[in-house]
Amino acid sequence: MLLKKLLTDTKAKVNRLLVSKYKVLKTFKFTILLFCCLFTTFGFSQKKDKLEIIYSGKSYKDKTTEEGAFTFLRDNQQQVHFVHNGVNLYCDKAVWYKNQDFIEAFSNVRMVQGDTITMTAKYVEYSGKTELAFARGEVVLKEPSSTLTTNKLYFDRTKQQAYYDTSGKVVRDSSGTITSKIGRYYMTPKKYQFIDSVVLVNPEYTLKTKRLDFFNDSGHAYIFGPSTITGEDNNIYCERGFYDTQEDFGYFERNAKIDYDDREIKGDSMYFDRKLNFASATNNIKVTDTINNSIVKGNYAEVWKAKDSLFITGRALAITLQEKDSIYMHSDTLMLTGPEEHRITRAYYNAKIYKSDLAGKADSIHVDHKTGLTEMINLSRFSSKDPFATKRKPVLWNIDNQMSGDTIHLISDVKTEKLDSLKVFYNAFLVSKDTISTDGFNQTKGKELIGLFKDNELYNVDIIKNAEVIYYSRNEEGELIGINKSKSGSINIKISDNNVDEIRLINKVDGDLSPESLFPKNANRLRGFDWRGDERPNSIEDLFKDDPPLKLKRIKGLDDYIPPEDFFDEGIRERVEAAKPKDSTKENKAARNIPEKKPTEKKEAKKASGN
């Protein structure tokens, strides 16, 4: 019985010990866990709320200074050193207003944030409560790829932004130098925002604009407002644009234009690559050549300056400006190549020419501006049995005369800007309507045709080889004498005032003059006759009558300028207000260099408060 009681007591004691041990272990584990959490929080999340003095050669408390502030001086070895939330501040002299957690730093001041941002100045104010710094006197803000210099700078550590409004300069190794009256640096995206009298200068060009957003890492520049980019041999203007300062190319909109020596290029949107000397434009394009007195229009263009070439399509129109009567040329595609002293124009696919006394149409037109030679060609792109083959054959109208053939050469005097002569090769055909009859046509055909002009009017025509003619002969009163149908080796025709004065048959084979009543109706057309008067352009607008409806490409465009929020926004002002000393009679040092609200801001704040 005694033994049993002893065993029971022993078991109870052991159980109590085990429970006690368990509680101790549990408490110990909780204590360790709590300690670890506190340590982690302390090690990684602790924020130092107050400015902390790290080093001073000499310090004293001047009773004459407001609030009995502490003054610190450097020694021969080190500067005065403060630290606050990861920022180190060094200077030769500092006045620390401990009660307001505010410091004034003098002489060789240096603020270092991490290993990327360093600011130096002659004088700096810094509030530990607002985390706002104000620097003055030879201020320099450095980060890995740029250096900002100004005379006055605000630095908001909370927003990680710097701001100046007394003119500043940013030097960037790969992009050059940027100056402006107002500037702002956003440290997280590494973006500068320049406002008012912005100038970017590098060895290749100078950019002037009203506003510029610049991204430091990429070198991308976004341009707002009237802007110019001036290079050694080209100038660019736009009112909205983008430029890659590292790769030297850009995109421009809104009254955009590029001056390429003797050419001015305008368009709704433009692309420019300085390295390639290449430019392209889209929609409502106008290229003006001041040397060759010409204008080219269209809706897509490419310009290769080194090759002296221009490619343009989309209702392409070339205008050769002349003193009295300009020449207009339209086709699906236009190409202008060669230097100014020997420019070549090529128009292909449904090409047309128009001036007041001349019009023409061909599959392709080639103009040599130096020699004055215009070639009208039918490109062999389709089968001869193609129903549109005839429509592609070159045709030329002068006054009331229609000339056609396989190829037409038109020669102009480049000095007088007047027509000199023309040649029609193979299947030459000259047609003009009889002045009185409704369906009568004067016709002359042969292997080749040579025509001569005087004052831009055709006055002499020679039909060479296998010549044939049908001519309505009339007297001075206009009465029909008869219809002449003849064949000969060649024919010479004299024309004045758009009337045939004389027809000479050389080496006549056969033919005679027949009265209209005896002339067979089925013989009034020479073989190959094709009157194409309905195709003749009679105005500039007629050049486009066969074109499909114009559909301009949609240009997404660059985003509009969005004004930035005020640097001294409500967030800053609330922080400054919260930094006020409890004693209202004392100056709030954190507000010392904060500008007052603008009148508009005051009105908005009053309206928002409901007063």
List the helices and strands and how they pair.
Blueprint: H1 2-44, E1 52-55, E2 58-61, E3 70-73, E4 80-84, E5 87-91, E6 93-97, E7 102-113, E8 117-127, E9 132-143, E10 146-156, E11 161-164, E12 168-172, E13 176-180, E14 182-186, E15 191-201, E16 205-215, E17 220-231, E18 234-244, E19 249-260, E20 263-273, E21 278-289, E22 294-304, E23 309-320, E24 327-337, E25 344-355, E26 358-368, E27 373-377, H2 389-392, E28 395-398, E29 401-404, E30 407-413, E31 418-433, E32 441-454, E33 457-474, E34 480-496, E35 499-514, H3 570-578, H4 599-609
Keywords: Signal
Region (Disordered): 572-611
GO molecular function: glycolipid transfer activity
Description:
It is a single chain. This protein has 611 residues and is mainly beta. Helices cover 11% and strands 54% of the residues. The chain has a 35-stranded antiparallel sheet that branches.
